[in-house]
Amino acid sequence: MGGLRGRDFLTTNDFTQAEIQEILDFAFLLKKDFQQGKPHPLLPGKTLGMIFQKSSTRTRVSFEVGMAQLGGYALFLSAGDLQIGRGETIKDTARVLSRYLDGIMIRTFAHAEALELAEYADIPIINGLTDLLHPCQAMADLLTIWEYKGRLQGLKLAYVGDGNNMAHSLLLACSKMGMHVAVASPQDYQPRADIVAQALENSRVHGTTVLVTTDPKCAVKDADIIYTDVWVSMGQEKEREKRLEIFKPYQVNLALIAKAAKDAIIMHCLPAHRGEEITEEVLEGPQSVIIAEAENRLHVQKAIMAKLL
Ligand code: CP
Ligand code: NVA
Fold it and tell me: Quick one: 145 and 252 in the same domain?
């Protein structure tokens, strides 16, 4: 496990393809153990702090349960109840918490806060979602794709909707693993240029493609995976009406998925807004793998923690 111990998990792009594969392989083993009721207390006596500036169902529960299954302990730390909420610096918080904990998972707004925490903490920092990235979700997504498709290399993932933290993380993670990625977003809501540049650099190594377009039909053509996420992310509530109007042509519905490969799987990080980014019939349809995808958060994060902490 040598090379991963002590590292932060802020973006998949800090890791090589082999390291990501190592985590995925280990997640798969942990999942098999879990299904057979075989315990794996790999982190006895270790403690994870979980700082939340935003709401969560999956991230909170899967990290907390995952840590328990590894024989460790997880503390839920609502940012509003920490002194951070009253102005204590991230620098001081990072240094103090490093003396109590073995790792910190943080969900916050500005990605710079997660970076600052990592800079001053002596323990691994895991990104549980920032406005920029959601790498743990992308790892669970890779595991899910691999389970359903039997491989990653050469597959095409089409992301349709807001060029947000999920679009960014999928661009980076899929391109790193040798997949083709196409993103369709409205002109003013496309993924950030620096992230697209990183994805392009990843794809150059594998000879794969990265496409950013405004045309959802073009993005999903021959896609093996169609992915979408909410049109209004946490922190964007004031833009709700405007966004619902602008994103209307980007709904993942039966007409759109008919343009993809016949055996394409449909993915969504959840929570979903039925009738907005995805229709009920697609979300609940035979191609949807959303619940298995959510389950994989547990297994992949256990693998991340067992390797890093
Ligand atoms: N997908 C995801 O991160 O869900 P939560 O916001 O419920 O944690
Ligand atoms: N893009 C969404 C993802 C939620 C898991 C958000 O940031 O709210």
Answer: yes
